[in-house]
Amino acid sequence: MTQEITDLMLIEKILNGQTDQYSLLVKRHQRFVFTLALRFAKNREDSEEIAQDCFIKAYKALGTFKQTSKFSTWLYTITYTTAMTFLRKKQLDTLSISDDQTFIQLENHTSGFMANGYEKIDSYKFLNQAITQLATDDAAIITLFYQGEQSLEEIGITLGMASNTIKVKLHRARQRLKEKLQYLLKDEVKELL
Question: What is the 3-state secondary structure (H, E, C) of 66-124?
């Protein structure tokens, strides 16, 4: 029977010179870091860039990890701050709402969704679609709590908020998610009838 190597064991090895072990940490956490980045960036290319930046920052700062929380909480905090910084920089390049291209892209996205509606009756897809329509903080809290299985305290550390604030925000985010799902599913039922 082999003992699973924990994140803390890997960190110790990395800090002692076995830098190749960092790839194991990346493999363990890359999927969720990408998912969390996607909740903020809303597109694959930006999410991949954010995730890559997060792992580079984490590697450079690994010696500062104090082990007062789980490694994943520390890493998700880096992901959150990296994503927020990335989005602030990207906001400088936003399009005007009166731009014709914006409406064309929105129309194409909507019509593409309608055409593929019958194939997308998978609840997971609807859930992810609803989450992407939430505000950034709501999407992050929902993702960290349900997919990341983080406690309220851990989410508070990640987002820099008190756990009681996270509890209230989680409750409100659930309500907003419920509304988004009801709206999405209502349209699907209409399409099927």
Answer: CCCCCHHHHHHHHHHHHHHHHHHHHHHHCCCCCCHHHHHHHHHHHHHHHHCHHHCCCHH
What is the spatial distance between Cα 33 and Cα 51, in angstroms, rounded to a whole number? 6
User: CB burial class (10 A; 0-12, 13-18, 19+) of residue 18?
Assistant: exposed
pTM for the structure as a whole: 0.63
> Which residue has 């209230």 as its token pair?
168
Helix (H, G, I), strand (E, B) or coil at 154: helix
Map out the domains of the chain with their CATH numbers. 7-92 (1.10.1740.10), 100-192 (1.10.10.10)
SS3 1: coil
What does the pLDDT look like over 31-78, one tens digit per residue?
Answer: 999 999 988 888 899 999 999 999 999 999 999 998 888 899 999 999
